Amino acid sequence: MNISILGAGAMGSLFGGLLAESGQQVTLLDINDAHLEAIRRQGLRLETDSGDRRIGGLTACRPEQVTGQPDLLLVFTKAQHTDHALRGIAGHIGEHSLVLTLQNGLGNAEALCRHVAPERVMIGMTTWPADMAGPGHVRSHGQGVVRLMSLDAVERQGSNQVAAVLEAAGLQCAVDPQVWTSIWEKVAFNAALNSLCAVTGCTVGQLDAAPEGVALARAIVLEVLSVAQSVGVATDAQRCLDSVAYAIAHHRTHKPSMLQDVLAGRPTEIGAINGEVLARARQAGIAVPHTETLLGLLRLIEAWAATGGGHE
């Protein structure tokens, strides 16, 4: 399969490396020139539970340099960059190209449908961990899954083919008609841990330094899942709370991407997570005070960083 990955950060590079290693033809598209150059010179260094190796055969280029049209476009850009990124590769998306979003947050499907016919859009989520260790170097330890389906929930040959390709790469992928449940539960998980860590500067494990940290995380999870229920998505609150508790207990030194963005003075994905939850909550007449407060605090931090300030 000819696969392009739009957004070759940690997650995009992990998926691209594993897909290339399994025999697929992969193009990584990104604007991080140092990362792209390192991959072109030495291949992608990938550290996983399967070992530390370099994967060659990857095409790595900036979006404006790409040629041809892929069978599959896998979108891993941050949610706030999706529209701009897709406009930049409009000629790369063929009339038969399938497009899959595994991005964080809500609103990603709507963004894709502004550029691609809805029947060619697939939505999904993944729990695979990945971190950038340096240019051309990605680490991923632990296991994860991928769940996907066509946006219109029609069972299509393309969805099954894409799932089979990802499964063959070791990514534990399945077509899941209940994928919206997985997406909303991940939004709840991220709204709790990412936003709390980004505001406080805590690692995930440091959130239990005071009982209030754990209580806040639980409250946010329940708020988000109440919004999911209001739009007709069934979720398992205890499963999501257990996932949060496990992360606090076992991922103690992890700095979520939102905290990393704050520390680097970059805009965060708070709009696609807490912001989208708040928008849907207001439509449903549901109060989500903790989720809303953290959104406001992150917006303030972003605004302060944009004026040249910092976050200690």
From TrEMBL:
The entry's keywords: NADP, Oxidoreductase, Pantothenate biosynthesis
GO CC terms in record: cytoplasm
Domain Ketopantoate reductase N-terminal: 3-148
Biological pathway: Cofactor biosynthesis; (R)-pantothenate biosynthesis; (R)-pantoate from 3-methyl-2-oxobutanoate: step 2/2
Recorded catalytic activity of this chain's protein: (R)-pantoate + NADP(+) = 2-dehydropantoate + NADPH + H(+)
Family matches, as Pfam families: ApbA, ApbA_C
EC number assigned by the record: 1.1.1.169
First-tier enzyme category under EC: oxidoreductase
Biological process terms in GO annotation: pantothenate biosynthetic process
Domain Ketopantoate reductase C-terminal: 180-302
Molecular functions per Gene Ontology: 2-dehydropantoate 2-reductase activity; NADP binding
Family in the record: Belongs to the ketopantoate reductase family.
Role noted for this protein: Catalyzes the NADPH-dependent reduction of ketopantoate into pantoic acid.
PANTHER family: 2-DEHYDROPANTOATE 2-REDUCTASE, 2-DEHYDROPANTOATE 2-REDUCTASE-RELATED
Name of the protein in question: 2-dehydropantoate 2-reductase
Source organism (scientific name): Pseudomonas chlororaphis
